[in-house]
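Data availability excerpt. The first of two example chains:
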Amino acid sequence: MQPQTGPNPHTVSSDSQHGSAGPSATRFHELDALRGVAMLLGIVLHAAIFLVPDGWLKEYPSEASGTYTLVFFAIHGFRMPVFFLLSGFFTAMLWRRRGLRQLSTQRLKRIGLPLAIGAFTVVPITIWVFIPDEFEIVWWPFVWLRTFSHLWFLWFLLWLAAGFIAAAKLGVKFSHPVLWWLVIPLSLGPQLLMREPVFGPDTSDGLVPNPVVLGYYALFFVFGAFFYQRGMTMRRWWAAALLPALALVFPVCLTLLYEVRAGWAGPMAAALQAAYAWLMCFGMIGLFHWAASRERFWVRYVSDASYWLYLWHLPLMVLGYKLMLGWPISIHLKFALVCVGVTAALLAVYQMGVRYTPIGTMLNGKRTRRRSTPRQLASSAGPGLPGAGARGT
């Protein structure tokens, strides 16, 4: 199928108040930034899981804090939904601009290859640092058959990209003016089938994806494709959705989940969890359209680096928490030290040994050192997060 490069009649020209999605728009700085922040929030989320009751390191139970349970729930309830929505958006954009063949090639380069390498490096290393006494080196090449660990989202992206390509070949345009809006209420279906006792979606990190979880994220993915295909206009006022999501929906849902025992509480909590995810998706898009719609070199740089940071943060985080286990300092200071220390260390590695190397090319596309101003550098750079579909990534 050839790239569809003609003008989109539904696209509205962007101005200082709003931006529009569609083939006539060249860059989406706010969505690049939001995608990077979604990745970085994964580092914060995982740092919090170590400190919740029954967290990842049993050595920390006496220090566990309910504060970090709230941090975990608040982030987990929307982070991956917004990430998959953006992935669908950029997948549709690459399809429109370059066609299905290049879309397939790009997905394999930016997602499939890092996952294949990570399955034999990142994943076994992560499991090894978690349980060094139980890990047998003979199982190193086979760990991924049981778990992709925190790289499960790359596996999901490959499934969703394959489904998108198949649908496009069958003639699906993802642009019906009414049909695709139905994915918002339809997300309640998978949410009702979630079984883990947490706020937000279940996790599926195995070789065979949980169809409920995959279906849930697929709805956000196809809505992102619809968002692009219809040339929908981003609005700053969408940021107002963050207030009811965080101040009303979130606390009420937690009350229903953990304090109300009536039979109606479960379905109502599921509906509120789905509402929270969508409110946060639109709210975060509005917030970033308001705050990050202009091109900034450092924002683009961090967005690029966030892929590398996310791939490798978890094993370093485990080692950091184990190192500080006996330190007589506040649990909050330990949390901050892990987040900042791991991020700083991986940023240094990214700059010195990743960004301008074949590894960086695999993750983000080729980057070239230039003696230029920051603005010129920003204009020449492009995003490389998984799910991106523009600017050669």
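And the second chain:
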Amino acid sequence: MKVTQFYLQRGIFRGLAFSKFSSFLGAFFGFALGASARAEAGVKVPLSVWDFQVTSSTEAVLKESGSSVGRQSIWTQQATFLQRFPVGLKGCFLGAGVQGESFSFGGKNSAAVGELRDFAGLVSLEYFVEGLQAASLSLKPGFYFSEHVHSDCFDIPVQLVSGIPLTDHLNGVVGGAGARFYRHPIPIVGVSWAISPRLRLDAVFPEPALVYTPAKGVECKLGGELQSGGFRTNTGAPVEYYSYQWKGRVSYAMGHAVTISGAVGYEFERRVDYFRGGPSFRSEGAVLLQLGAGIAF
């Protein structure tokens, strides 16, 4: 799972009305739904979204209870597809898709896991303002396993996030993510400040970022990123993997549909945690390289 970044832009929540819904969906989207005074009918939300990323991290010393147990590297591959369908209120979309992830661990060490994988469906409910995501609820029902799929590795990670209008230039972000194989739920909280039309500061835990757009179709981003997931091993033990990274990324839109990206960064901490009575392995200090490509139309 990769925690969602919200791209809240100057003034998109101005003039919101909060009294449209009394149901659960109204409570969820209540911060973001309403009649935006700045809404632009010409801004399109992509309905079909494909994304692929590969990340390679160098070897780092792996420790258990402070003692070295070898060295570990990791090769990560992630692919997703999402198809959106307009529903109900303008700007509301129901999404359905699939995802696949593979975390392949290398190096000589005594950690028991060589690979963690997941194959899951995607179900989402999203609200957009001026083509930007303002709120979302996502579920990822699927199999989260180490090497072999079995019925006990089924899980449904859930993520819920919404924007909160504060001022024309400042918006709050609040939400959380959780799953059966996570040790603890992950809070998502902070503010997004549109410093200028080209510069934005996302002071959002756990993925703060400074985003600069020097030209149309080009985005430069410096910030933190949390990659995490909960899995069940072949022996039935739950294991949580997470990696906290700091990256510099450049994305370039090639035409209207294709985007390519490249990033270099530093991995502050990587942990494989058998949190129900098993060992916990920790490494830090790896260098990483990431390449990505996406298609959206």
